[in-house]
Each structure stands twice: as C-alpha cells, then as structure tokens.
Amino acid sequence: MSASHLPPFPARDYDFREYVAARNWIAGGWREAATDHHDVVTNPRHGQVIGTVPMSGEVDVDAAVSAAAAAFPAWRDTPMKERVQVLYRVKALIERDLEELSWLVSHENGKTYEEGKASVLKGIECLEMGISIPNMAGGPQLDVSRGIKCEVSYEPIGVCAGVSPFNFPFMVPLWMLPQALVAGNTFVLKPSEKVPYGAMKLAALFHEAGLPAGVLNVVHGGQAAVEGLVDHPKVKAIGFVGSTRVARLVYSRGAAHGKRMLCLGGAKNHLIVAPDADLELTSTTVAASAFGCAGQRCMAAAVMVAVGDTQALVDATAEQARKWVLGKDLGAIISKESVERITRYIDEAERMGAKVLVDGRGATVEGAEGGFWFGPTVLDHVTPEMPAGCEEVFGPVLSIIRAKTIDEAIAIENASPYGNAASIFTQSGGIARYVMERVSAGMCGVNVGVPVPREPFAFGGWNDSKFGHGDITGWDGFRFWTRPRKVTTRWAQQKDMTWMS
Q: Of the CATH numbers 3.30.565.10, 3.20.20.140, 3.30.230.70, 3.40.605.10, which one belongs to the domain with range 24-265+465-485?
C-alpha cells in the first residue's frame, strides 16, 4: 500500500480473502499509527483474520485533528457550489466500484452480498442528499422594517468528528460526511475497529475525487481514540452511532466540554400486529425485519406484539422464519462473543417460560463451519420483564409478546426506554392512525417492517435511542454541522423612523 493508494479488494464471492493491514488516513496519505497495539480484523463468515487494525491513541488523534484544522480555512472559503462537485465525483466512483464495495462490506461485516450492496446503495442516496444541499441552503431574508433587512446564513463549525458502528461500515459514515463537508467543515472519522476497511475505501474515493488533503481524515482505534476526539479542544461537533450505553457516555463527556453532540443509541423496536392484518404481507415483512442483516441493525423488529386472536399470524411468521437459509438469506454474526451473548438471551427466556418456536442456536453453514452463525429464532409468550423482551439482543431473534388490546400493546411499546422505531400492521386506517399518534418512537410505520425514512426525511429516534437534538441525516443533519449567522442591515436613515425602527 503506497502513501495514497489502496489496492482493490479482491473478492467477488464468499471465499475467504486476506486484505491489507489497516492504516490511518491523515493529511491526504496513509500513515502508520504511533502505537504497537494492533487488533485483528476477522471475517465473520469464516472466523478467519483478514488483516490488522491499529489501536490509535492521543498522538494519532491529535495528528488527524491538526490536519483537519489546517485544512479548514481554505475549505471553508471554497464556495459551496465547488465543494459539492467533489460529492458528484464520489457518487460516480462508488457506482463504478459498486461490486467491489459490496463484497468488501460482506467480508468485513458478515452480511450477504445483497445486503452489502443495499447498504452501499443507501450510502449513495445519502450522498445525493448532500449534493442537493446547495439548492436548499440559501438562507431566508426579510425586510423587517423600513430600510432594515434581516437574513440568515449557515456557517461551518470547524473540525468535526464522527464515530461509526460495525453494522454498516460504508453507509453510516455517509450519514455524516456529505452534509458536514458540503457545509464547509473538515472531518475526522473513527470507524469501528471491527470493520476498518469501508472507511478506508471512503477516504481513498474522496481523495480520488479531488477532496483537498486534510479535509477528511480517518483514525482507527477503540475507546482511547473516541475519548481523544471527544476531549480534543479543536473538535467542535461529534456524531456518534452505537449502543445506548456508549452513546450516553460519549454524549455526556462531549457536552461537558461544551461540544455539539448527536449520539444515536440502541433500540427495541415493537411491531404491533392487529387481528385484521394481512397474513402474507405481515408474516413476510415481520420476518424480513427481524432477520435481515442477521438482526444486527437498530431498525430490526425485536418484538412482535400480537393483539387478540392473531395465532394464525404468529404461526405464519414462524413458518416464514423457517424458510430463511443461513449463509444465503441470512449473514453471519459479527463475533463469537456476540453469538454467545445472543445464545444467553434465548437460554434465559426459555428458562423463564418462553416457548422457542424456531431455534437458531448452534447453527452452522457448510463450508464455513468456523464462522459466527446464529439462525432465525422466534420466541413466543415472552413477557416485557424477560431480558429478551426488553433488552437489545442485536441478533436474528424475534420475541412475541401477547396483548389483549391495542391500548395494551401501545402501553408495552411505550414502557420501553428506547424509542427508535415502531410499526402497526392492520387493514384499518383508524387503528393505524390511533397507534401512530400514541407510540413513543421517532420512526414509525404502517404495514412497514423497517420504517427507515428515505432521504430527504431524516433518521433519528426518541428517548434512549438518541442523545442530542435533531436527526443525523437530511436537512437536520446539515443544520447539526452548521451554525446560523443572523445579519441585520441598514444603509440609510429613514425620515419616518421611530424608536421601534
């Protein structure tokens, strides 16, 4: 790997491939980290080591932030219409490399190829939102009095940072980068140490697209790198996506430093199923929500709240779960430790009285027996007090809680400390509206299993699923990475001026 070149990822199938040792991207080039501590990067499908990743510390973080600070004045002074041209070129490069990037996501994260491709395509959609910002960012102005005009412009903050999770190594950074960079900020990205390569590819693609050196930097590592960014006096704003426990800690630490913080946490999404729900639509959609991406996404269906006489819907959903083919329809779990954690949730639920309708424990895939696998799992007669019924499992596990009425189902959803997503499955417009007006969640759906808002509608939950204000994508995302400047102008004295004007 040369100073600025990243070799293509070689795989075009699921067969195991090694890749490069990860390096930090600072000031337009690859750099060795100032640390002897490296972790391994493991392909979850095979349980084999792809490469290594440095566990960067304060020295590396300071180098990246210093590079971003040095690049900021020139990037800030570049007209927005010129900044956005880089995003146009990045979009074309991602489309050119779509197959390579999809396989890369699959190999470092464990997704199926189709899921990896879908996540890259969603990243392109986020880029397109960023590309549209110059057509939206013209600030309003108004003649507020005779001869006096007020106007607002959106100014960059300076050096910004983002911390992204393992489950979407290419897409989640693109929730942040387009709006932050188009706004005129410079950026330091800290990807999950489990999946460093998606962020490295993004750095290489932005470089190829002509982004000036230092505008985007990538630092690998774990807790020390995150804390270094949060504590650094030159970092003005931070976006974070991860677990609720860590999101709360990062938000509190950054807020104590007076930084602008937006930290997205975990979820326990409830899909309420009414007795009149369409059998085929509901069963297939709930299963796809619960088991897609191996349940390792904050928008996955974690709980199906079956209201009243819905036994046929429960049976049909369990039957759909049995159709999912491990390794083909459902990818691997990120680590051996995660498989063990998910297994404990199932074991405990069973001991507490839940019925295992579909059991994914101990699953393996022929030809990839060393991988980290967990099959689709459906638990019936779960209660909200069971850990599987109230905690984030983050695996392909659907817990079914029975409720007598819609109001009881809503109460179960609202009792959860999380508030990322909620859906209602029904053929009644009245019931749908009743539920949508009462559930405590930021992203809601009617007969939709994964109610992710498409751009320009912004991504973000409520309650313990988000710490901070606004959402991380869409127009809210642009406003997070900027600060409004209000200017009031008068050029001439008015003859009929009063004390008010």
A: 3.40.605.10
